[in-house]
């Protein structure tokens, strides 16, 4: 019989899919690493597993313990699945800009979710960073993975995502592109690819306009899961050769194109990363192989990015083929 004894062994080993249509006019091969094939539906299953197993080994997480983490959703799902398999409780703290779809998913896995205002400074007592610290102090047997500073976040990508890409491309990858949130994906994957290729692979980060990685002040943007208003220690700026800043409008329009033109129903940070990847690929030739990592599925964003009314309210529908079609139908 062929079966998995636990969802845990299904984490990682996600496929590469060539982008065939949004790449019109581009000579380089552009491949997407589609992370929604992970059991929790996102790239974050990788770090959840690695962080929990490391905490078990170090004794920071004891049997029956409670995992408490500020998360925009995907890390929560990964942690919730691994915790469920291993018998831990979970409490997640989210900013209020996170879609209700994502929050309901966390609650479905049996986790407790505390929602905090996103319009306050990180130092404010109600910020989601501070609320989670307070909960950890008040809850006996609790452990906070802290994906922003946990070395097992980048390490999981150094040990899995990086080697997978090198093997899947038979060492032909020339450029790696990923969105930067905690910085774990780009730091771990990028470091591995640079080491194995003796520095030949170029590593390009993408972040929302206004975020610190591309020189902004942390001003708000709507794309979820990427961009920061501080520099987390999970991110090593030495690994990235370049950061491409992308507007919300370009991000969300590309996200919709990926569903329509490539059959990839993915999240907003995926659209952002693809805008960056195409920006880079435009300058390259036929021997170049660009891999862009797509962190999650579009299912968690149906009421936002894939909702014409929401897109129109922000002026994001202009200049796309979908708006005239919609008014014709109405
Ligand atoms: N996209 C989404 C949807 C995410 O949840 C995250 C994680 N915050 C990222 C991209 C960025 O990945 P990383 O934290 O590894 O930089």
UniProtKB/TrEMBL annotation:
Alphabetic keyword roster: CBS domain, Lyase, Pyridoxal phosphate
The protein's Enzyme Commission number: 4.2.1.22
Residues covered by region (Disordered): 140-161
Listed cofactors: pyridoxal 5'-phosphate
UniProt pathway annotation: Amino-acid biosynthesis; L-cysteine biosynthesis; L-cysteine from L-homocysteine and L-serine: step 1/2
Catalytic activity: L-homocysteine + L-serine = L,L-cystathionine + H2O
GO molecular function annotation: cystathionine beta-synthase activity
Keyword Cell division attributed: no
Lipid biosynthesis among keywords: no
Family: Belongs to the cysteine synthase/cystathionine beta-synthase family.
Protein name: Cystathionine beta-synthase
Gene source species: Streptomyces rhizosphaericola
């Amino acid at each position: 019989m062929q079966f998995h004894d636990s969802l845990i062994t299904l984490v990682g080993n996600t496929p590469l899919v060539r982008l065939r249509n949004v790449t019109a006019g581009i000579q380089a091969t552009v491949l997407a690493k589609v992370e929604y094939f992970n059991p929790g539906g996102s790239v974050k299953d990788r770090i959840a597993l690695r962080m929990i197993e490391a905490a078990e080994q170090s004794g920071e997480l004891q049997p029956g313990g409670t995992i408490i983490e500020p998360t925009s959703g995907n890390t929560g799902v990964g942690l919730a699945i691994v915790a469920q398999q291993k018998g831990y409780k979970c409490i997640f703290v989210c900013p209020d800009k996170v879609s209700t779809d994502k929050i309901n998913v966390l609650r479905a896995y049996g986790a407790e979710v505390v929602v905090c205002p996103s319009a306050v400074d990180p130092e404010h007592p109600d910020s989601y960073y501070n609320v989670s610290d307070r909960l950890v102090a008040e809850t006996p047997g609790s452990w906070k993975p802290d994906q922003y500073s946990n070395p097992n976040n980048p390490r999981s990508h150094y040990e899995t995502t990086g080697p997978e890409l090198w093997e899947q491309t038979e060492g032909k990858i020339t450029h790696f592109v990923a969105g930067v949130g905690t910085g774990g994906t780009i730091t771990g994957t990028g470091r591995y690819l640079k080491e194995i290729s003796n520095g030949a692979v170029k590593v390009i980060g993408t972040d929302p306009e206004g975020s610190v990685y591309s020189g902004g002040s942390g001003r708000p943007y709507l794309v979820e899961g990427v961009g920061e208003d501080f520099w987390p220690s999970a991110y090593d700026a030495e690994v990235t050769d370049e950061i491409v800043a992308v507007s919300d409008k370009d991000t969300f329009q590309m996200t919709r194109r990926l569903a329509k033109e490539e059959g990839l129903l993915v999240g907003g940070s995926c659209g952002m990363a693809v805008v960056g990847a195409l920006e880079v690929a435009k300058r390259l030739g036929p021997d170049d192989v660009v891999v862009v990592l797509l962190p999650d599925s579009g299912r968690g964003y149906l009421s936002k990015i894939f909702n014409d009314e929401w897109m129109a309210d922000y002026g994001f529908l202009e200049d796309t083929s979908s708006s005239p079609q919609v008014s014709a139908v109405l």
